[in-house]
Design goal:
alpha+beta, 2 domains, two-stranded antiparallel ribbon, 6 helices, 53% helix, elongated
C-alpha cells in the first residue's frame, strides 16, 4: 500500500493557510503583502491584533474558507473604472447579471441603499444631459449630411 504525500502546490491537498500564504505571495508587493482584493486578508486586517493572535489554526482555516466562499462572482456585465475629478478620484461600477439574492436580502439592501438619494438623482440628471448632448450632435451630423447630399 502506497502512502500519499501531501503536495502543497495542489490546491486540493494544500491547507487553507498554505493557500492564503500563496495568495499573499502572488499579490503585487511580494510575499507577505496584503492583497487588497482578498476578502480573507481584509477580514484579518480588521481584526484586533490580540484576537488575530488568539485564533487557532483551525479557526483561521475556517475563517479563510468562509471568506473565500463569500468572494466576488462573475457578472454578465462588469464595467469598473475611476475618474479623476478635481483633486480626488471617483469610481464608477456598472454590474449586471442574474439575480441570486433572496427576497429578504434584497429588502435589507434596498433599505440600506435606497435608489432615491440626492447623489443618485444628480448622477442620473448628469447622465441624461450627456446622452441628450451626444444624441443632438449625432442628429445634427446626420441631418447636415442628408441636406448636403
Amino acid at each position: 500500500m502506497m502512502s500519499q504525500t501531501r503536495n502543497p502546490n495542489n490546491p486540493s491537498q494544500a491547507s487553507d493557510l498554505e493557500l492564503l500564504e500563496r495568495e499573499r505571495s502572488d499579490q503585487p508587493g511580494g510575499p507577505g503583502s496584503l492583497g487588497a482584493d482578498s476578502l480573507a486578508e481584509r477580514l484579518f486586517a480588521k481584526l484586533p491584533p490580540e484576537v488575530r493572535e488568539s485564533l487557532s489554526e483551525a479557526q483561521t482555516s475556517a475563517l479563510v474558507r468562509a471568506a473565500n466562499d463569500c468572494g466576488r462572482r462573475e457578472h454578465g456585465i462588469d464595467i469598473r473604472f475611476s475618474l479623476p475629478l478635481l483633486s480626488k478620484r471617483f469610481y464608477v461600477a456598472l454590474l449586471s447579471g442574474e439575480e441570486r439574492r433572496s427576497a429578504a436580502r434584497r429588502e435589507i439592501e434596498h433599505a440600506k441603499h435606497p435608489i432615491a438619494r440626492l447623489s443618485n438623482l444628480l448622477f442620473l440628471a448628469f447622465l441624461t444631459s450627456v446622452f441628450t448632448v451626444i444624441g443632438g450632435l449625432i442628429w445634427t451630423v446626420i441631418f447636415t449630411w442628408y441636406l448636403s447630399g
